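Backbone-to-sequence.
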């Protein structure tokens, strides 16, 4: 019997198609606005990816923050809050404090975020039963990428490939992972590492690719994997392979490559006798007592 997590991972290509076909442009950040994107955990890492993409597309200055670290007093035209559950304490607290125009993206229309934000985008079709967040995170990023004018036709094809391909055995059996990204995929590298920790309790780290040689490469060794999301800097593969470590890189879009990392996390969970739907010490939403 498949888990909720497995089914949700496999559904991502269809969710992305729906997201790019129905972009609610009026509620999302507009070209020229100065935007702060906030979230917690997975949502923070998606915020990092979108912030870089938005600036790169020339839509305006965009910063990403963990909701608990939002810089009070800094001026923005809009706060974009990402929250699958719509109940995360730090996000709701920030929305209650800010006088800046706000938009929230959530999966659940029956939660406090509906009234806490000025405008709300609900992606209920991408909601999840699993505690581990997979398809909601990538579906909202697909929608946000489409809103920036990206054509995601090839990205969705890459996602279908990532869902269907057999998983390389060295990834399932590796001792340790270092996920790397560059530009917008730095946030996705962080998210890939988080998924591996959450679902399978694996030893994982994440870095900007050019920073990996400034110390972290010292842990590369046989049985350990350096996994690049996106195109690797010249010479990095050779340096990792000189250590005896495995360097893994494909030509897929980094968002599609994240799907493969999610699948590996689930496979490793099964190998360790863990339930990827119910990661240890975690709940669907972090709600703090006052």
């Amino acid at each position: 019997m498949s888990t909720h997590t497995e089914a949700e991972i496999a559904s991502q290509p269809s969710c992305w198609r729906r997201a790019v076909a129905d972009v609610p442009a009026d509620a999302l950040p507009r070209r020229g606005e100065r935007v702060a994107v906030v979230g917690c955990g997975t949502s923070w890492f998606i915020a990092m990816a979108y912030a870089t993409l938005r600036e790169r597309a020339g839509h305006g200055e965009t910063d990403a923050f963990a909701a608990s670290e939002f810089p009070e007093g800094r001026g923005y035209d809009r706060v974009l809050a990402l929250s699958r559950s719509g109940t995360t304490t730090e996000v709701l607290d920030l929305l209650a404090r800010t006088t800046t125009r706000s938009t929230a993206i959530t999966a659940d229309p029956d939660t406090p975020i509906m009234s806490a934000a000025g405008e709300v985008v609900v992606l209920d079709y991408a909601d999840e039963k699993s505690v581990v967040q997979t398809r909601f995170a990538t579906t909202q990023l697909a929608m946000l990428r489409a809103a920036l004018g990206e054509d995601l036709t090839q990205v969705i094809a890459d996602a279908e490939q990532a869902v269907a391909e057999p998983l390389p055995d060295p990834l399932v059996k590796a001792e340790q992972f270092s996920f790397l990204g560059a530009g917008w995929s730095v946030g996705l590298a962080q998210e890939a590492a988080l998924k591996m920790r959450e679902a399978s309790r694996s030893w994982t780290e994440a870095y900007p690719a050019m920073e990996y040689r400034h110390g972290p490469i010292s842990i590369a060794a046989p049985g350990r994997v350096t996994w690049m999301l996106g195109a690797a800097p010249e010479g990095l593969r050779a340096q990792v392979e000189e250590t005896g470590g495995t360097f893994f890189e494909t030509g897929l879009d980094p968002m599609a490559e994240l799907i493969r990392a999610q699948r590996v996390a689930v496979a490793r969970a099964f190998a360790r006798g863990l339930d990827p739907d119910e990661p240890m010490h975690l709940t669907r939403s972090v709600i703090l007592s006052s």
